[in-house]
Amino acid sequence: MKKVLLSLACGLLILTSSALADSMQKDRDKMMKMNSVEKMNKMKKGFGTKEDIIYAKYLWKKLETSTLNSTPATLYLGGPPHGKVREVLEGTIDNQRVIVKRNYGGKNITINKVKNNRSKYLKAITVMIQRKNYDSKNNDWFWIKYKANGTLHTTPNKTELAGKVKGCISCHSSASGNDLVFIHNKDANAEITLVNEMMK
Could you say which architecture CATH assigns to the domain 50-194? Predict the structure, then answer.
């Protein structure tokens, strides 16, 4: 009787171990698939990657130490997706062309209100910087949308807006001049303020 019970217990243990191993393998396969899908999604969207975020943080520090984040420029009225009142500056950082657009918003906003208190109405700083060999299909522009404090705005699913942001590329593709810059569209932009201080 003991031998039968022992044999049954061993058989049950083998079956349980086998089922557990199968379950663990299925969990591993599921995780691999999820990781693969996550990687594919990141590749598809082309922005908000770890490298994009690291570069965006680096660039913010450069903007802060240059005059690009503090020089007042010509304020003008605009519409979505940028602020109702905005200003644009251009310069270079690390010998790369950079365009900074400050976007202002708020209830009953006017140019004069912004002129009197820029920090109160500043909602976003959108930046495009031309990085060598970054994205030749789109003139090598790297796109970023910062909050006023230098952290990154995100999409509804919490992806940081830095890198090959499709919304930015799609909109700027309509600019004349074939370089994704609206400086050529005088009806869409005020004059860009050129900042002479160059960041090496």
Answer: 3-Layer(bba) Sandwich (3.50)
